[in-house]
Amino acid sequence: MEKVAIIGVGFTKYAQNSPLTFAEMVFEATTKALEDAGITRDEVDNVVSVSSDFWDGRTISSMAISDASGAFGKDITTVEGDGTFGALYGMMRILSGAFGVSIVCAHHKGTESNMNGITNCAFDPLVERKLGLDAVSSAALQARRYMSKYGLLEEQFALVSVKNHGNAKRNPIALLPMDITVDDVMNSRKVADPLKVLDCSPVTDGACTLILAAERQAKKLTTNKKRVWMKGVGHCADAFRPGDRDLADTRALKAAAKRAYDMAGISDPLNEIDFAEVYDAFSYMEPLWLEGLGICDDGKGCEYLERGWFDAGGRFPVNVSGGRLSGHPVQSAGLYAMAEAVLQLRGEAGERQLDGAETALVHGVNGMCGQSHCVWVLGK
Amino acid sequence: MSDWKNDVEIMVHEGKISVPYSWTVGSTLSRFYCELRDNGKIWANRCPKCGTTFVPPKIKCINCYEEPHDWVELPGTGTVETYTVVRYEEPSMHPRKAPFVYGVIKMDGADTGMVHFIDEVAPEDVKVGMRVEAVLEDEREGNILDIKHFRPIG
Ligand SMILES: [Zn+2]
Which residue, A90, B83, B112, B135, has fewest beta-carbon neighbours within 10 Å? Predict the structure, then answer.
């Protein structure tokens, strides 16, 4: 199969109440990504945009950012979900042979609306929506289930927040770089037990753009240093209704990860992959998803977290960027995670650069409580 | 260059979208809600192939993609699989004032959980594994809120 490379990345700094419109944010991210790739808009023939109409407060939201994404006179299509799924669609368009160099852009302005109200509308209006369930309260149900299934403690989840906010101090775009302790997390305002404010990611604005190209074009347009290869990808969805799942069971993520690892020829992810960006919208999610990703056994994520495995200087660094806990523009989150992996693999991650970063794992989520997962293996 | 951007007053325009919808409930959930409204009963449906019993009932088995056409009446009791105490107010979407408790209740006679309120117990006394029963509204309209909440048994 032909290989596809990420040849350029660009993004806005995470913000709250950003003075930029959606289009201005997408324009900034896309301009930066084209500059990073060293190409012009003329060399791109299609755009995959990622957005949510509900969150934007307008229908066919991709149309509103089409000029800003460079789509005028070209083909533009939309993915409603996380950016990792948009990148998958972009790659597939290239592999189909029908499209050339592709822009994948995602935008999100959480601070312009009401996150609880919008995520409540993700639930079935015939059942759970009427109860008032939303992203936070459903995540709290998942956190408690994970705790009781494996005998885990809130203090262990708090360690994720301590680690990731600490990592954010070395990321110039992070929204919440902080020196905090487990006590700070434990004493922060209760939101939905067992989740406290510091277990939750902040409502964030941000746009991110990747430029993708097939091997032949990538080699023509860019230098070796700029190219990061999409080595493996897999995705899988679980049941929609939260009550139809065991919320602490990661079967969909396990299936997605297996597909990605098989495609990338990886049999031992812990030892063959150097670092990961994992979806940590809430602190407990990082160890839970690391188990689903096969980095450790079920129920063991917190134990290895306590041993320091997932620290920036640990055996398997996770969320060195500061993670979603330090900035979470929902639809764009996965593209930011991919962009972070690209910078690390190119050796351009500044103060947070990891030594010998050659293979990266990136994970994105769509749906409540991790209903659907997209897993990427990126490499030099 | 673009120095003027540093001086401009950035404006914010307020807006609100309000669109009415009429959502069709479909034959499967309509039967569930009619039984709940008219007879005060909670019904589930079972997949003939793998035997999984779903509540609320489903149009297709998530495992086999078979139609779960065997209907079974549930006793309305179950076990708390997980819960959360919600501490924040969202008056336009929460049917009750915080703090209140959501739980996933693994229903007796079914294989799935129902998300609902747990009440008639102090939030700090709710526990995983607690046995609970459904409390129904006296005046029922044919929706999920016809179940008022679940309360501890005994
Ligand atoms: Zn079945």
Answer: B135
